[in-house]
Here is the input.
Amino acid sequence: MIRNESQKRIARLRDEIARHDHLYYALDKPEISDAEYDRLRAELEALEKEYPDLVTSDSPTQRVGAPPREDLPSVRHVKPMLSLESVMNVDAAREFDKRMKKGLGSDDVTYAVEPKFDGLSVELIYEDGVLARGATRGDGSVGEEITPNIRTIRAVPLRLRAAKPPRLVAIRGEAIMPLGAFRDLNRWMTERELPAFANPRNAAAGSIRQLDSRITAERPLSFFAYEIMKLDGAEPPDTHAQELEMLSKWGLRVDPHRKICRTIEEAIAFHGDLAASRDGLSFEIDGVVIQIDSKVDREILGLRSRSPRWAIALKFEPRKEVTIVEDIVVQVGRTGKLTPVALLRPVDVSGVTVSRATLHNAGEVAKKDIRVGDTVRIERAGDVIPAVVERIPQKNERRKRPFAMPGACPVCGAEVVEDGAYHFCTGGLSCPAQLKRGIAHFASKAALDVEGLGAKTVAALVDRGLVSSVADIYRLDAAALLALEGFADKSAANLLEAIESSKKVALDRFLYALGIRNVGEHVAAVLAARYETLDAVMEASEKDLMTIHEIGPEVAKSVSSFFAEKKNRALVSGLRQLGLDVAPAARADGPRPLAGRTFVFTGTLEEFSREEAERLVQSLGGRAISTVSAKTSYVVAGAEAGSKLAKAEKLGVKVISEKEFKKLAGA
Ligand code: IVH
Here is the structure.
């Protein structure tokens, strides 16, 4: 085809594909088969490959995702993104109705009622009809720019379907993850020993706030539009109903479950209907939004600082179900804490099969008087893990004995002691349950970040006797790993490499990794900033620890007694002997300009030894690692850089020179 013809064909294909995307993703009414659709795309891709200069940002081929960014940039919203006042019961909705009538000085009010989508709110900016920007809500005034991620959502048109689009329009709506996709994603995460998302909202947020939009592109998100925040160069709609029509005409997905109500009772009835049918929807909603339909009336009623006066969210009751407690078992956590867990007769709570629920502690079980065999009400808010709300007494029931915490640890048999509301196993790391969780914690992302050493692998290593302390992971070799199910040459080599590169660790991460009671990520960072070196933390007295502003008596005690114990000191020195190098922290008041960044050094540097450069990175809050991955922030290439440089280029990781590195580090 000659260029001119190709150009026309490209334009036609883009229109066709955009039309089918709209039919499929916004209207849910596809007209062609997937195979036909794929053919159209393949043809367009081939033509664009031939004429790369004809590729435009609104071409459907541009929904693919781009290499990772280092940070999500901030953007100021065109207007503050307000929230809604939430109410839990219909009486509060009636109160709202009274306020509206009083505020308007009239009994004639019209409400626009629609679902409250359970996702995260997003602002889209279209300039001359072309998607120019997408941002999260953030704090309401300033959000995170997520344009490349938004572009991957098929329900978001890259170009508005309008002959004469407005010069500028800011559209607000909700990015959501459909339930089917949510379940698939969690299954995928669990199989890889990654933490599952508690609910579709978190999954949507986690997917959209990615630095790497290629990940977002793999997550089937959708988007419902519900508000025009700013409109330049077009006639503004008079009512909310017209606004939604306008959005729908432009090609955005607008949910059809909406109703114009002339009375609050009508709105309440709609809320009831939707509550009854919500389990049939393919996405999660958590209530209805009731708002004044007329824009003029909204002006009269005005805004509060964080929410408009003219709207409320009338939430749904949490989902409840009744089932039977088949057993109460006791789980042992990383710190030895015993948690009673109810094993339930599996029950479907709106699409999620629930078979266990936490009972928190012995006091809670006693208070609710939950026993094996009882009939109980469980409640699931938006989350996957439910709570046991109460026992439902049954007629003529013959109840079992009350639950009692065991006197010996169910895993290792060590004595159990009480501390406040909780019970603890005293077995320490000789208890396999604590050991497994302790090692998994040590290797976790916020600690030493050993990729590939998740709970399942750790459990297998402990069960086979290959690992009986944290230090043992540094003694593993390929032969040991290959003995485990699921390991092959490549995966074993990868894990060994990840273990090797975890040996250089910043002080705060190491302190967190040790799993000292009451020392979370934040306290670990406070300690590192104050003491700078591991030895100084280890020698700190309880009294000295107490002088730190953010550290109270309980934390001070946990830290000093942890390091007073011989076996813990032995663990630290053992780790050091195995090559673990805990980098001193930046001074308390020192800058951390490299926080969150990872660096890989390759080749020979002129002014620094490798160790000096790595220490510098660590002292400025960054991390120096040895393996290049798509997540690496920078590869610093010195003279005769080799395969790591090639890998960085292949993965699109930013490569900088020693000079640029010095500038970044302010050295
Ligand atoms: S209207 C002035 N409509 O609920 C506020 N919000 O706290 C305009 N939401 O942050 C919001 N579905 O993310 C509106 N149909 C809907 C909604 C909705 C979900 C979210 C939105 C907002 C939160 C309210």
About this structure: The mean pLDDT is 90. The chain has 24 helices and 24 strands. The chain has six domains: 3-63, 85-315, 318-425, 443-502, 506-583, 598-665. Residues 82-84, 114-117, 121, 174, 226-227, 289, 308, 311, 313 surround 2-(butylsulfanyl)adenosine (CB under 6 Å).
